[in-house]
Specification:
heterodimer; A: 191 residues; mainly alpha; Arc Repressor Mutant, subunit A; 2 domains; B: 252 residues; two-stranded antiparallel ribbon; 11 helices; 73% helix
């Protein structure tokens, strides 16, 4: 039978390095997914995964089992992701400008093949989702990712982000509103 | 029930199963075409968001992450007295002092000395970068410490804060002397928080932890440190200046 997170944490807190390895191996993929959705960059997500586990290891003695180990890890990962996002923001405009300049005019030409059409449409939707997520404020993105993708309760998210229940609800709502504004024209069939 | 429609916020909460009593909403949706259409629009958009791909990581990913951090985790277990960050600030401080002493007394260098000055300056930039990175680590650890009912042990962060204080003081004084007030102000803020951490009890309660977090947050310290750290990195990466430029000296 697989050892529970709680038991592995207790062993790791007692200095058992092998127990911490078990936790890293078990949670790396989910931390990566969260980090990627928060940052939108693969390399940044890799950095977040690594730093999250290093910080978790350092703070392991402070961990109390009031929240699940994964929630605690998500908290560290989302905080570090936010730090990275803020740091990267300064370079964003420059990066976006160069991407626009580098885009071939052919990219915007409609494809003749229907399958190709679907592919172009799907890419456009994904690109739009990516952009819409980036346009959310840090708090909105964190709250939305944790609720929508990770399925955490609004109460837990509030606890992780240090926001009240109402503020957390409002952040999620604002995020959905912004996503609707960006995506609805693309995905809702014209009446 | 059609006289009062369901708000967009309620529909979003309903989608996530967080609307409390779902039965009245369910019942309203079954009768009201307008709200049903609105809910379908919410669903469509949120389902679309799900299609955004996340790069795949295989079953062995956890093992590769462990291999990447194993050495670092091991290194953190070593005796504190041999940790590089204990002795590094002292040597860096000496180097910085020597560098600035030279910079202040010899503002205009002879061309033959320019290369040597640039090397010293680069070493200093690396040292400042390291200092900021270590400071950032302490602040981030305090900011991310898990909330709980009992006392929280911050003795490790305290030790680091104490070690960082001396070098921070030196960098701040130097920045003041060279007229780099923006950097000096951030280092001044950082010093106050480091001092606060160093002087706190080793075991703090939730209230004290919140106070420390507030101080870090109110001063916007983590962000400011990153901005300076980024400037330092840019200068580190920048190509060596021309001889005429090098006479001016590079600010932090």
């Amino acid at each position: 039978m697989e050892e529970s997170d709680g038991a592995a944490v207790v062993r790791a807190q007692a200095g058992d390095g092998d127990a911490f390895r078990v936790l890293v191996e078990r949670h790396s993929r989910s931390v990566f997914r969260l980090a990627y959705r928060m940052t939108g960059h693969e390399q940044d997500a890799e950095d977040v995964v690594q730093e999250t586990f290093l910080r978790a290891y350092k703070q392991l003695s402070h961990y109390e089992s009031r929240s699940s180990f994964s929630t605690w890890l998500y908290r560290i990962a989302s905080n570090y992701s936010l730090d990275l996002i803020r740091m990267r923001k300064r370079h964003e405009d420059k990066r976006e400008a160069s991407t626009e300049e580098g885009r071939s005019p052919l990219d915007t030409v409609a494809a003749a093949d229907p399958a190709q059409d679907r592919l172009v449409f799907s890419n456009e939707v994904q690109e739009r989702v990516h952009r819409a997520m980036k346009d959310l404020s840090d708090l909105e993105r964190s709250a939305f990712v944790l609720r929508h993708f990770e399925g955490l309760s609004i109460e837990d998210i509030g606890g992780m982000l240090g926001t009240s229940l109402n503020a957390t609800k409002h952040s999620i709502f604002r995020a959905v509103q912004k996503l609707r504004k960006q995506l609805e024209p693309l995905v809702t069939p014209a009446a | 029930m059609n006289e009062e429609h369901i708000s967009e916020e309620q529909l979003v909460l309903f989608y996530y199963g967080e609307a409390g009593d779902a039965a009245p909403i369910d019942s309203h949706l079954s009768q009201c075409e307008r709200c049903r259409a609105e809910y379908r629009a919410v669903q469509t958009v949120l389902n679309t968001v799900d299609t955004a791909p996340v790069p795949e990581r295989g079953a062995e990913y956890g093992t590769s992450v462990w291999q990447r951090i194993e050495r670092k985790v091991g290194a953190r277990k070593k005796s504190r007295w041999f940790s590089w960050w204990i002795w590094a600030p002292a040597s860096v401080a000496m180097l910085a002092l020597a560098f600035w002493a030279g910079r202040i007394t010899h503002r205009v260098e002879a061309p033959s000395n320019v290369a040597g000055g640039q090397v010293r300056e680069r070493i200093l930039l690396v040292a400042v970068g390291d200092h900021l990175e270590r400071s950032q680590m302490v602040l981030a650890e305090i900011s991310n410490a898990p909330a709980g009912r009992g006392k929280i042990d911050i003795s490790e962060q305290q030790q680091m804060a104490e070690d960082l204080l001396d070098s921070n003081r030196l960098y701040r004084q130097t920045a003041n002397r060279t007229g780099d007030t923006a950097v000096a102000n951030v280092l001044d803020d950082l010093e106050r928080v480091l001092l606060e951490i160093a002087n706190s009890p080793a075991q703090i309660d939730q209230g004290q932890l919140s106070d420390l977090r507030e101080q870090i947050k109110d001063r916007g310290l983590l962000f400011k440190i990153r901005v300076i750290g980024s400037k330092v990195q840019q200068e580190e990466r920048a190509p060596a200046p021309k001889q005429e430029d090098s006479k001016q000296g590079t600010k932090l």
